[in-house]
Write a structure and sequence with these properties.
25 strands; 39% strand; mainly beta
Length: 331
């Protein structure tokens, strides 16, 4: 998978990022089950509206794909068909996150939202078969929940770094908007771009020198110096990473060092940003400053649920100055 990063630079600029993935092994005899949920989301993943909604994760533990159309989620044992899935296929070993937000959204090509939210004090939660009466899985009830602590069945998780610190990135210091509409796409040809090791940026003194990538393995140093300083406010970065078929990546965690802003995309989907001025283009500049001391520390951004973003095989992530990615993988 490739992932593009768009950094916005002020007189001093540097950015580093990391993404990780988690692998989970399920030990349940049920084929489709509720593997995990969060009933008090304060600073976890956000939904498409930017809200920290509760969420429910459904897992297909079986050997074949399952059409979830007609299955139900409910928080009431007296109303087993409270919310119904649209037609959507869940492959073997795949996860699907449904936000328990009360927004009731059932478009299979967008985020799914139930018509109920979860009670952190504890309540019934069930996944019901299409006949409306057979319980596929349930918590009857689940106990009191706590802020930003998910609850679920026994799982084995392993974190794998997909983009390490110092990884090589293709970079472009844009002189016009000729690639603005296409450079974030997975299939974009970046072979003519420069190659540098992250972190990438420039510095008018020595503050960021320890954070720039060293030259090596065919890549130049991440210190772009006079090629960027007082020349442009933006750098386009494309950082490839690969997810092997059958890896069952559940979520990614992104960490960034940046000065002063960035927008991160995976396969064309915007997944994280800071000090985004909006209407991104080659002349974009950060909308606010990011303090130098904070810029030299990794900032952990929200975990990314990537069922519709992450693909098996080649992927791409754009980043400002330097990126690392870790993945949660299921076994």
């Amino acid at each position: 998978m490739k992932c593009p990063l768009l950094p916005w630079l002020r007189p001093v600029a540097c950015a580093l990022a990391s993404i990780s993935a988690i692998a989970v092994t399920q030990s349940s005899s049920a084929e489709v089950l509720i593997s995990e949920f969060l009933a008090q989301n304060q600073d976890g993943i956000a939904d498409e509206d930017g809200d920290s909604s509760d969420w429910i994760e459904v897992f297909n533990s079986g050997p074949t794909q399952v059409n979830l159309g007609g299955y139900h989620l409910t928080d009431s044992s007296a109303n087993l068909s409270k919310w119904t899935f649209p037609p959507i296929t869940l492959g073997a070993g795949e996860f699907l996150v449904v936000f328990a937000s009360g927004k009731d959204r059932r478009d299979p090509d967008r985020e799914l939202h139930t018509n109920f939210s979860l009670n952190r004090s504890g309540e019934y939660l069930g996944l019901i078969a299409p006949d409306g009466s057979t319980v596929a899985d349930e918590y009857a009830p689940f106990p009191q929940q706590f802020a930003d602590l998910s609850y679920g069945k026994g799982q084995e998780q392993r974190t794998e770094v997909l983009i390490p610190e110092g990884a090589a990135a293709r970079y472009l210091i844009p002189v016009d908007g000729s690639v603005d509409g296409v450079w974030r796409d997975l299939g974009f040809d970046d072979s003519t771009w420069g190659l540098a090791n992250m972190g990438i940026g420039y510095d008018e003194n020595t503050t960021y020198d320890p954070h720039f990538g060293a030259a090596g393995n065919g890549a130049v140093s991440g210190d772009l110096d006079t090629a960027l300083n007082d020349v442009r406010t933006s750098v386009y970065l494309r950082i490839p990473f690969t997810v092997a078929p059958g890896s069952n990546v559940l979520r990614l965690t992104l960490r960034m060092k940046y000065d002063d802003g960035f927008a991160a995309f995976i396969n064309g989907f915007n997944v994280a940003e800071a000090n985004n001025p909006g209407n991104l283009s080659y002349v974009s500049a950060a909308s606010a400053l990011h303090e130098d001391a904070a810029s030299r520390q990794f900032r952990r951004l929200r975990s990314l649920w990537l069922r519709r973003v992450l693909g098996e095989g080649a992927n791409c992530s754009p980043s400002m100055v330097s990126t690392t990615i870790s993945a949660a993988r299921i076994f």
